[in-house]
Amino acid sequence: MNKLNELRAYIKNLGKVAVAFSGGVDSTFLLNVCKEVLGDNAVAITIVSPYIPEWEINEAKELTKNLNCTHHFIKIDEVPENIKFNPANKCYLCKRNLFEKILNESKALGIDYVIDGTNIDDTKDYRPGLKALSELNIKSPLKELNITKDEIRKYSKELGLKTWDKPAYACLLTRMEVGTEITKEKIDRIEKGEEYLHSKGFKAVRVRVHGDLARIEVNPELMDDILNKTLLEEISKAFKSFGFKFVTLDMEGYKTGSLNVKE
Taking the CB of residue 152, how many other CB atoms lie within 10 A of it? Predict the structure, then answer.
């Protein structure tokens, strides 16, 4: 039995599930398989918060519409007090906050199992949020069945999912240094900056913030594309209109967890 069929069998045994849905590669693949196996007994639940970009929420809505899947939203208007100053353990605290809300919502819907798209490769990186998932008994079928990111992309392509080659993304809090007060103004600047770079063709990108300075990371393969004098001037002008005073380009390019050393 291949891993995709193992996943189908795993999900079938659960009977009824709520998928913590971000609209990324992993959760879209997982939701698609759940919908295929369980039909209307699979629902999606998405958190809407100040530190999740609006475009990402809109994409999630479109994906569940295409999958003909019931989609529930939990709105959080303010940054929770325990992560307001971006503590070193913010990922743990944030996951704990969010998944407690997802669990409560799923129970109100009469669903016992909440599952998420954590895959086996996630265990090889610094992911403090995984501890919160374990404490709350969230099931992670892709991790439990040793399904890798590459396999998820491969299966997603075979299943016709347009997210198969979608770049990895993460909440906007990962762009700020530990100890930085999280404000709507700072989050908006980051979101505008990354959306602008997306519009210029840079999909795997991060805007890391250090005070009034924006440090741009782009995929190393695209470094030659961004090192264009006219384009750099346009980017600098745009970023300053978003509220940044200084704009820099990280010479090492985009890399996950580049602020982890601060944590």
Answer: 27
φ, ψ of residue 20 in degrees (nearest 5): -70, 110
- Inter-residue contact 148 to 120 (CB < 8 Å): yes
| CB-based contacts of 124, cutoff 8 Å, min separation 6 | none
Instruction: Give me the count of residues in the chain.
Output: 263
Which residue is it, tokens 């979101």?
191
Judge whether 38 and 77 are in contact, CB under 8 Å.
Answer: no
Dmax (CA) of the chain:
57
Residue 119 has pLDDT above 80, yes or no: yes
What are 109's two structure tokens?
């819907």
pLDDT in tens, 20-42: 999 999 999 999 999 999 999 99
**d(C-alpha 125, C-alpha 139), whole Å:** 19
> Is the pLDDT at 77 greater than 90, yes or no?
no
